[in-house]
Amino acid sequence: MNAPAMAGMIDPEARAAGTREIKLDIERLTYRYWLEREEREFLAFADVSLAVADGEFVCIVGPSGCGKTTLLNVVAGLLKYDEGSLRIGGALVNGPGISRAVVFQHASLLPWRTVTGNVRYGMEMQRRFDEATMRERAAHFIALVGLSGFEGRYPSELSGGMQQRVNLARALATDPEVLLMDEPFAALDAQTREFMQSELLKIWAKQKKTVLFITHQIDEAAYLADRVVVMGTRPGRIKREFAVPFARPRALSVKRDPEFLRLVDSVWSLIEEESARIGVVRAPD
To answer: Which domain holds residue 154?
Structure first.
């Protein structure tokens, strides 16, 4: 087993990320929606371009209302973009598909299904796995997220963190090319949230899925990601990207490293600058 990486140690994989195959390719994407009450269009984000390498973990942060979640929903195929292009593994997409799975902020588990039943649900909807495969994959991913022994429990019998583990297992079981995560830990208490961040990295290290992760927490983004992408607003645009230079695996103690704190402060400064431009006051940490 590898020893935990020393804080501040440069990750050689991060240096090589630019040489990997592009899995998610967003090019000059624009999305508008109609404001019914005001009878006008609203430009949610414009001219957004982002290339995410195969197996890369990218976090998007920015002021409230900058279009982070809207962008993720467009990538998921839940919203149809107006201009630009979106490719997964080189294939043009403009709608839902098996190439992506979404982990939302709330677990949204089916209360009448057990842990196993909820993990199987996505596979059943896709109808591309036979019974034996679904049984095997459900057991595998339940074990992977640390819920062995809880297969027969119902959502009401699980903590919030455990429910999000089921949510993650359900998404991974469908074998998506890209995993989309929209503030999946926002509803958890601070201690559980930090624990889940660490657990997510362990799971990701085994699966190496391409991840696009939305969060308001800058330290969460810096801890999880290979790159942190900052969006500005009105309309939403990518302002800057920050490479995260810390080696993997990462211990939570990296959050106390001075270089980590400087990275977090640099991202915060850019968001504060953008928030001041549109008259939004920074929320307390």
So the answer is: 107-175
